[in-house]
Structures are given as structure tokens and as C-alpha cells.
Amino acid sequence: MFKKVLQPVDLNESIAEIKIRASFLYKMKAEELMLFYVLTPGLGSHKHAESRLRHFKSVLNEVGINVHYKVEEGHVAVEITKAAREQKADLIYIPASGRNFLISSLLGSTTQDVVRLADNPVWVHKKRPDLRHEEQMHRVVFATDFQQAAEKCCQLVYFIGELVPELVILHVGERAADPYSEQIRRENVNENLEKLKEQYSGYFRKIRQLSRIGSPAGHILDVVDETRADAVILGRLNEPFPLHVMGSTCARVVSRVNSSVLLIP
User: Does the pLDDT value for residue 241 go beyond 80?
Assistant: First the structure.
């Protein structure tokens, strides 16, 4: 599913960090990795950047992924998303941990721009899974509102089931205005959660369903921490950010969650 991956890199990253991320992507069944670097117009050396990326490529030969590299000049988020479209990447992988430039840049407005502009799935890799200690993921949270954006995640949830043993399906809704309407709402939610559990039962060894009332972002953050999930899966609509990314849920989750985030456009 994620055979072709585009990864923005920092030229100052250590070889160890580069290798461990490539190994993680290989375990995610990636076959081709493009290391991508964006020069600020008028600053930096194109020749130096290519030399550094060439060195990264030589080191990653032993991992098993076919590695390419590319250097462009311009606005970081625009160039990342443009390259992903042109290369027909299955995934934009943003390693937002360690001593990466993404801590100061891509976890701010640039990450939000990538999420907003991308036509490709985006994986923002944060504190979990901690690749320094373990590359295996144990648990993912799939946040769903049962609407179009969440429905687009189905195929990737199936794929994640080949890699991760446990799925937590989370729905966060609003309480209905009166007791009778609330009872109907709860019944509908439970019915939809059961349908999703049955739908994914052949792909995960364990499935849990949770229903909460209140702020979607707040409950997603709480459940991810409570379950020690390695990643949270969110769907978004290709409409102006952040108005239609489950409200402003996506922006808040990306900026505050400790786990990785997989965003499906």
C-alpha cells in the first residue's frame, strides 16, 4: 500500500536516524524511498545538498529499499506536496522526532501546510513508535465520525491490520437535545461501531470500540495516551484547512498528540 514513499530530510540528521527510519518504512512494506530536501531560495548549496543525500543513499543500500533523492528550491510545503504528486508517492513520511528540522519547522505551520496541500496520505512520525527501542507497532486508533472522510480510510485500515495486532475504533459525538433522541443516537453509534468491528475483524487480532461525547480532538488525544497507541488514523476532506478536517480536529491532533498520525485525504 505504501510502496513508494517521499521523505523530507534534514541534511544534519545522523546516519543512525536515517537508517532506523528507512528500516521502519521497509517493515511498512515500502519498496521505494525518495529522500527530498528543499533549499531556501538564495541560501544553501545545491551541490552540498546532493552530496549529502548521495551519502544517505549509499548508506541505505543495505536496508532493502530502492532509494532515490531529489533537491528542489522554494517553499518547503509546496515543494514537498508538488514532488509527492509528480512522483505519484503512496505516502509522505514526515519524521518529526530526534534532532530533525521538522521539530521547529514542520511541527509548526509547515506541517499544517503539508497536510492542507497534500493529495497523498501523510504520516507524521512523532514520539511513538519510538524507533530507537522498537520498530514494531502494537496498537492504532482509528477515529471515525462515520462520514465521507472516515470512509476513505477503509483500505488503509485493512493494510495497517497486516502490520499491527490491535485496533481501537473511536467515535466522538455530540449529545442529543433530549433523552429519546440521545437514546436513538447511541443506538446508531453502537450499530455503526459493530459494523466496523465486523468489517475489520479478519485483519486485526484484537478490536476495541469506544464511544465518547465532547471535543473530538480532546478525546482522541486522551484515548491515544490511555491506550498507549502507536498511531492514530484520521481522514480529511479535500477542502480548505482547517474547516473540514473533522473541524479543526486534525490540526490539534497533529500538533499535540504523542503518537504518530496517519492522515488520509
Answer: no
Nine cell digits for residue 249: 480536529
Query: CA-to-CA distance for 179 and 246, rounded, in angstroms?
Result: 26
C-alpha cell of residue 141: 486508533
Please tell me the pTM assigned to this model: 0.90
Could you please state the CATH topology (level 3) that the domain comprising 4-125 is classified under. Rossmann fold (3.40.50)
CATH of 139-256, one of 3.40.50.720, 2.40.40.10, 3.40.50.12780, 3.40.50.620: 3.40.50.620
> What distance in Å separates the CA atoms of residue 175 and residue 245, rounded to the nearest whole number?
21
Distances (CA, A) of 115 to 167, 177, 211: 24, 34, 26
